[in-house]
């Protein structure tokens, strides 16, 4: 396993967290919403024998500072990246993005093509204007913490349906994925991710959906690979993207089999594309070392995950009793810290 260096740099007044590992040509990985760079570390480990990999927390997610108000478009995120890469001494690199991260990769390559060697798009799609409008209206419910914990029901509803329907908010046969439900512990992890992102969880998520149009990929001028995995929950919408008249330098790479084979196929393809590229050596003294914040200790265990999600309400009640003067936001932070402590 490659050693992971956790660092931060400040760009335009915002602290951006990233994790870097491996050796070889520079490659940035952009994650899906509302997750963080942590979700990409297993993939980054597979890539680390061939690349110097940078897993970046999108502003407002994970450990990166976000925007005070909703951004108007993805360029609000893209415009931070040239200075971010300048801080690291990276003149040109390749970029992989999944879902929201794929749209950010497209936007950066459109805005700054001179900085990009190759773009790899995973879970990139095209939605027609009618479906996009429906998604924007229903996909992002309010997750503001409430003292009675009622927002937990909405969070668990999202987590429970995220891989049963796409979009998750349209619970009809037309949108059913016909897949088995995930184990409670996995749903619990997804729910915590939403709670960690907080009431602003939809900032990058929303503008990525707005950006998810074939015309943006058609406009790319850099070499691009669109990964088409047979088991993707958004496969019809990936195919809708591939149905566009794409330029010669934008190619599809089909991937089949279970997730392990999918990631192995992506690694092999990416390594082949960059076998002759110049290695990049990251100076581990750049930026600031990230120090994990001290966690509030609880003198009791929080309930284990159950299929109904009732454990979150039970945990909320325990924490309200433990800290009767705490605000809803403070209770939510205690809940996150308590469960993080129990899983580390």
Give an overview of the whole structure.
By secondary structure, this protein is of the alpha/beta class. The chain has two domains: 5-128 and 204-289, Rossmann fold (3-Layer(aba) Sandwich), CATH 3.40.50.1820; 141-200 and 292-342, no CATH class. The chain has helices spanning 41-47, 75-78, 81-87, 100-111, 129-138, 151-161, 184-197, 202-211, 214-218, 235-242, 259-273, 310-322, 328-342; strands at residues 5-11, 14-22, 26-30, 52-56, 93-98, 116-122, 224-229, 250-255, 288-289. The chain has a nine-stranded mixed sheet, sandwiched between helices. Helix 1 links the parallel strand 3 and strand 4. Helix 4 (100-111) crosses helix 8 (202-211) and helix 6 crosses helix 7. The longest helix has 15 residues, at 259-273. The radius of gyration is 20 Å and the shape is globular. The model has no long low-confidence stretch (mean pLDDT 96).
User: Domains counted in the coordinates: how many?
Assistant: 2
Oligomer designation: single chain
What is the ordering of alpha helices and beta strands? EEEHEHHEHEHHHHHEHEHEHH
- Total helix count? 13
């Amino acid at each position: 396993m490659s050693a992971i260096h956790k660092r931060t740099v400040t760009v335009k007044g915002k602290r951006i967290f990233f994790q870097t590992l491996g050796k070889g040509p520079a490659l940035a990985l952009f994650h899906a919403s509302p997750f963080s760079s942590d979700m990409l570390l297993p993939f980054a480990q597979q890539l680390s024998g061939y690349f110097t990999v940078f897993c970046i927390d999108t502003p407002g997610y994970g450990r990166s500072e976000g925007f005070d108000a909703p951004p108007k478009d993805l360029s609000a995120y893209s415009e931070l990246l040239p200075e971010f890469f300048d801080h690291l001494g990276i003149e040109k690199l390749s970029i992989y993005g999944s879902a929201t991260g794929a749209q950010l990769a497209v936007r950066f390559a459109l805005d700054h093509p001179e900085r990009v060697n190759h773009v790899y798009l995973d879970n990139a799609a095209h939605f027609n204007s009618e479906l996009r409008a429906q998604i924007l209206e229903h996909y992002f419910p309010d997750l503001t913490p409430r003292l009675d914990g009622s927002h937990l029901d909405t969070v668990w509803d999202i987590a429970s349906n995220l891989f049963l329907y796409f979009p998750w908010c349209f619970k009809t046969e037309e949108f059913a994925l016909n897949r088995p439900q995930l184990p409670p512990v996995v749903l619990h992890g997804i729910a915590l991710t939403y709670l960690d992102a907080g009431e602003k969880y939809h900032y990058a998520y929303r503008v990525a959906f707005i950006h998810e149009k074939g015309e943006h990929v058609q406009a790319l001028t850099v070499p691009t690979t669109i990964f088409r995995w047979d088991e993707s929950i958004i496969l019809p919408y990936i195919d809708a993207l591939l149905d566009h008249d794409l330029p010669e330098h934008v190619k599809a790479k089909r991937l089949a089999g279970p997730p392990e084979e999918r990631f192995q196929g992506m690694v092999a393809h990416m390594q082949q594309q960059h076998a002759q590229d110049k290695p990049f050596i990251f100076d581990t003294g750049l930026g600031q070392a990230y120090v994990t914040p001290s966690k509030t200790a609880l003198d009791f265990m929080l309930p284990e995950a159950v299929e109904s999600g009732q454990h979150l309400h039970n945990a909320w009640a325990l924490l309200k009793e433990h800290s009767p003067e705490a605000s809803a936001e403070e209770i939510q932070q205690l809940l996150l810290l308590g469960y993080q402590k129990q899983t580390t």
